[in-house]
Amino acid sequence: MLVNRFSSPCVPGRLSGGEGGGAIFHPDIYQFYQTVWAAPGEFGFADLVNSAEDSPGNDDEFFWWDGIHITAAAQRVQSEEIYRLVTPPSVRLEPVSSNPDGTLSIRWSGGGAPFLIQRRADLTADIWEPFGGATENREVTVSTGDPHAFFRVLQLGQ
């Protein structure tokens, strides 16, 4: 089949490199639907069998609109799942720790490398300045020479 010829290099649920820096994403919707079918109430559905078109009441409680097409509520749930799959987890800062040499260690988890650390001496200033270059690490050590300094971690990757 023509579809298999073009889809075979792509692993379901993964990004595959495309020409020119693009990517094709093949989410495993079948697996997601199995999750919905196992616990429909957790996704806001009361009826997975009947169609909203033929039934009175709240259309958002139905998965199917007409037996072939899914409802707007099902499309929303599906879209949220795809967004979750292609969006890296947020950067979560861990508590800052003091080192014996007077420096501070800033650590974080989540997010997609590379990261860029930025610094400001004043939160009312307009510009965040780079603190070093991009890094794959999830920790940076900073000097405590400034009485006031603010840092943030930007994720540059996905």
Written description of the protein model:
The chain starts with a helix and ends with a strand. Mean pLDDT is 82; it is low at 1-15. The strands form four sheets. Strands 5, 6, 7 and 10 form a four-stranded antiparallel β-sheet that branches. Strands 9-8-11 form a three-stranded antiparallel β-sheet, with no helix packed on it. A two-stranded antiparallel ribbon has the order 1-2. The protein has two domains: 2-86, no CATH class; 92-155, Immunoglobulin-like (Sandwich), CATH 2.60.40. The protein is elongated. The protein has helices spanning 2-7, 29-38, 72-86; strands spanning 15-17, 23-25, 47-51, 62-64, 92-93, 97-98, 104-109, 115-120, 129-130, 139-142, 150-155. The longest helix is centred in the middle third of the chain and has 15 residues, at 72-86. It has three helices and eleven strands, in the order H-E-E-H-E-E-H-E-E-E-E-E-E-E. The protein has 158 residues and is of the alpha+beta class.
